[in-house]
Amino acid sequence: MSSLVAAHTRYLLIEQIRVPIGLLASAFFPAVTLVAFVIPFSADKPQDATMSTASLMFFGAMSGALMTLSINVAQDRELPWNPYVRTLPAGAFPRFTGRMLATVATTLVSVIPVLLVAEFFTEATITPVKLLLGLGVILVGIVPFVLMALFLGFTLTSKAAIAVSQILLFPMAIFGGLLLPPQILPGFIEAISPYTPARGVAELLWAVTAGTTPNTVALVMLAVWTVVAAIAATWAYRRDEGRRFS
To answer: Locate the ABC-2 type transporter transmembrane domain: which residues (predicted)?
Structure first.
C-alpha cells in the first residue's frame, strides 16, 4: 500500500509542477503583500515584522490548502479516471492519501518566498527551533482548511469550487488578522476575529515565533472549527460515495 501512496503522490506532484499556476499564486500574493504593506511600515520593527511574516506564510499555506485542494478534488470527481481508481481493490485510499501529501508538500513550498523576503528586507528575527515550530504550526493549522476543501470538493463542481473557495479565503484571512494586524482592525472585525479559524492558527504562530500570549477563545474556536469541518468532510465523502458507487 505504501508503494501505491508514494506512486500517487509522485504523480500528483508532477501534475502540479507541469501546471504550476496555483502554486505560484499561493506563493506570489503573500510575498507581494509583505513587500507592499509590511516593509514600508514595519520592516525595522523586529516583533511586528516577525508576526507579519508568520501571518503571511500561513496565508499562502491556507490558500494552497483551501483553494487548490478543493478545486483538485472537484476536478477529480469529474474525470472518468477517478471513479475507475475508486473501484479498484486498493480503493480510494492511495490516491486520496497521495493528494493530501502533495498538498502538504506544495504548502511548504509556498511559504519560501515570504520567508526569503522577510530575511533580506526586514528586521524579522527567528531561531532555527522557532522556525521549525512555526512550520509545524502551519502544517497542523491547515488541517481545518484541508477539511473545508474536501467538503467543497466533494459537494461542488470544479467551477463552483473555484468561486466558493475564493469567496471564503479572503474574508477568513482578513477577519483572522492575517493581512492586517488585529489591533488596527475595525472594532466589529476585531470582535469577530477570535471566532474565525484563521485567527486561532495566527495566535499559535505568533506565540511560537514572536513570544506573544495566545488568545484562549481563538484556540478553543480553532478546535471547534476543526471538529465541525471534519464532520462536514466525512459527510460529504460518504454522500459522494453513496451517490456514485452504491
So the answer is: 11-196
